[in-house]
């Protein structure tokens, strides 16, 4: 336990700190840039995970392990390279998740509430979409032959994952039922439709079932609750469309694997069903990693539940979803791109963000801890020699902790002294939000154990229905090939360019070193003539089976 590794008596001696600093100095002196190109990229995005949230999550992680917490280390904090990203959008000093998602995924700053569009697009104006589309790094990775995936604890049509595949003048156009008639007449498509039709995404895991099915379609998990039914007005079953399209697409792609020098038609000879849809943890667990090239898992009608509220028998965690995605995507010899989001605010989206919006710090910090566990698991499943892993946030929140609390104080505990109004207050506070409260003309005193409850709302200075984002820079942490490109203070859209350069994606596909990287990744591909021969044999085998 951290408390045993760092006993108070040892910390009182200068040698304790001097030895620790020397070890870190030696590691820094030995650090060399990994200048080779990345075969794989994993982008972890903690929605709303500002620096104060990361610091508090670190303490919470340590306290969950039985330590005092302050000396704990998040897995993401072991990454050797770091930068700061400026999060403003073209039109806002304090951003939203759509404009920032367009920046770090598509490589351009944009306007708030718009997805996958340049700054020339106008929020809510469908006609401004056409001609202003910008493609994400995920889309470009798929065009380059890599497998791609999305994992999120929100609805998969939410702003952050939506920026990976959609071009929408409004982040709120989840389904056609959420769109104005004018936008539909002008030819704009809802985000759920674009999820299925814009980019061939191999793995899609998150929430958002209701936006995929026709109105009044009962939800498989909540069939007796009409509020969870499908919402589409056009009558389309996008899940069925996706499954049907992928059966054809998989056959056209002809994914080949090389085993012991022999090229096999894996998708045709070994598996006829190469795409799968699941809606609960049992279904996800039943999917064998080598049996599918495409997997869609939608585990809630809207956003997934907070980790502290999650039914562990029916809903997978972000760690479990991340592992499943990596195990499927890494089978592609060309590599993969994976986007993983956890919203850190209790409301209804990447859950870190949703936790903060509702003023429930414990929900938000648990989501941050879970994202870090997913980062750690991804590190165990991939090699840093070929995988660039980046961890960042889209924006921060007006969340802070202070009050001269003593070492080892519960991160959700009280400050040691009362405020000027002679009432106790929690260390964690919000600048604004639903936690504002006046009773009998005064601020209510914070008490224990109430303040430790998962749904406790920390107090806020300004009354708002939901807590707001904040505008300070966010941290970018990186390890693996080209991780040294993340340094200094950068504009947020630089993140997409650094990832694209690292993996030889457009517009950097012809940069020095990319040709050799392509030869290395394509070395295990099948040559055309043996493939045609085996294709004929596979077809014959299928006819015989039939």
Automatic annotation (TrEMBL):
Keyword Acetylation among UniProt keywords: no
GO molecular function: alkaline phosphatase activity; metal ion binding
Alphabetical list of InterPro entries matching this protein: Alkaline_phosphatase, Alkaline_phosphatase_AS, Alkaline_phosphatase_core_sf
Active site: 97 (phosphoserine intermediate)
Region (Disordered): 214-234
SUPFAM superfamilies: Alkaline phosphatase-like
Principal location class: membrane
Enzyme class: hydrolase
Cofactor: Zn(2+); Mg(2+)
Cofactor note: Binds 2 Zn(2+) ions. Binds 1 Mg(2+) ion.
Keyword annotations: Cell membrane, Glycoprotein, GPI-anchor, Hydrolase, Lipoprotein, Magnesium, Membrane, Metal-binding, Zinc
Binding annotation for Mg(2+): 47, 158, 160, 341
UniProt: Zn(2+) 1 binding residues: 353
Enzyme Commission no: 3.1.3.1
Residues involved in Zn(2+) 2 binding: 47, 357, 394-395, 469
Topological category with respect to the lipid bilayer: Lipid-anchor; GPI-anchor
Subcellular location: Cell membrane
Residues passing through the membrane, by range: none
Catalysed transformations (reactions): a phosphate monoester + H2O = an alcohol + phosphate
PANTHER family for the chain: ALKALINE PHOSPHATASE
Complexes and interactors: Homodimer.
Similarity remark: Belongs to the alkaline phosphatase family.
Protein name stated in the entry: Alkaline phosphatase
Organism: Cettia cetti
């Amino acid at each position: 336990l951290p408390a045993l590794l760092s006993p108070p008596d040892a910390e009182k001696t200068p040698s304790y700190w001097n030895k620790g600093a020397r070890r870190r100095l030696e590691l820094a002196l030995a650090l060399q840039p990994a200048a080779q190109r990345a075969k794989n990229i994993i982008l972890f995005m903690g929605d709303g995970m500002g620096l104060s949230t990361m610091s508090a999550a670190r303490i919470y992680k340590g306290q969950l392990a039985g330590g005092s917490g302050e000396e704990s280390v998040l897995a993401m904090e072991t990454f050797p390279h770091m930068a700061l990203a400026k999060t403003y959008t073209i039109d806002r000093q304090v951003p939203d998740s759509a404009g920032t998602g367009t920046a770090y995924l598509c490589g351009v700053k944009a306007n708030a509430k718009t997805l996958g569009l340049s700054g020339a697009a106008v929020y809510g104006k469908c006609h401004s979409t056409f001609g202003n589309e910008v493609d994400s790094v995920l889309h470009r990775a798929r065009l380059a032959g890599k497998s791609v995936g999305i994992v999120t604890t929100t609805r998969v049509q939410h702003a952050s994952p939506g920026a990976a595949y959609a071009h929408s003048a409004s982040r709120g156009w989840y389904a056609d039922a959420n769109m104005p008639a004018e936008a539909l007449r002008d030819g704009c498509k809802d985000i759920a439709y674009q999820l299925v039709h814009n980019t061939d995404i191999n793995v899609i895991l998150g929430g958002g079932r209701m936006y995929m099915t026709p109105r009044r379609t009962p939800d498989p998990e909540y069939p007796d609750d009409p509020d969870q039914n499908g919402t589409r007005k056009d009558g389309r079953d996008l899940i069925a469309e996706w499954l049907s399209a992928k059966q054809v697409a998989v056959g056209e792609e002809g994914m080949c694997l090389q085993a012991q020098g022999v090229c096999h038609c894996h998708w045709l000879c070994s598996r006829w069903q190469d795409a799968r849809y699941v809606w609960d943890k049992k279904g996800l667990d039943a999917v064998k990693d080598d049996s599918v090239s495409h997997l869609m898992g939608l585990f809630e009608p809207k956003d997934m539940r907070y980790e502290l509220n999650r039914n562990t028998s029916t809903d997978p965690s972000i760690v479990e979803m991340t592992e499943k995605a990596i195990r499927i995507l890494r089978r592609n010899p060309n590599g993969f791109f994976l986007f993983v989001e956890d919203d850190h605010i209790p409301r209804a989206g990447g859950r870190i963000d949703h936790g903060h919006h509702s003023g429930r710090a414990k929900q938000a910090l648990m989501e941050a801890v879970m994202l870090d566990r997913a980062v750690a698991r991804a590190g165990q499943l991939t090699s840093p020699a070929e995988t660039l892993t980046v961890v960042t946030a889209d924006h921060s929140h007006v969340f802070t902790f202070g009050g001269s609390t003593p070492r080892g104080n519960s991160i959700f505990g009280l400050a040691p002294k009362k405020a000027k109004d002679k009432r106790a207050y929690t260390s964690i506070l919000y600048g604004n939000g639903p936690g504002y409260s006046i009773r009998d003309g005064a601020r209510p005193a914070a008490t224990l154990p109430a303040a430790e409850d998962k749904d406790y709302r920390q107090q806020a200075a300004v009354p708002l229905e939901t807590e707001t984002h904040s505008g300070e820079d966010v941290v970018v942490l990186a390890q693996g090939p080209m991780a040294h490109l993340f340094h200094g203070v950068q504009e947020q859209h630089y993140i997409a360019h650094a990832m694209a350069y690292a993996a030889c994606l457009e517009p950097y596909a012809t940069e020095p070193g990319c040709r050799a990287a392509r030869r290395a990744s394509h070395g295990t591909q099948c040559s055309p003539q043996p493939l045609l021969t085996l294709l004929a044999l596979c077809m014959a085998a299928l006819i015989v089976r039939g």
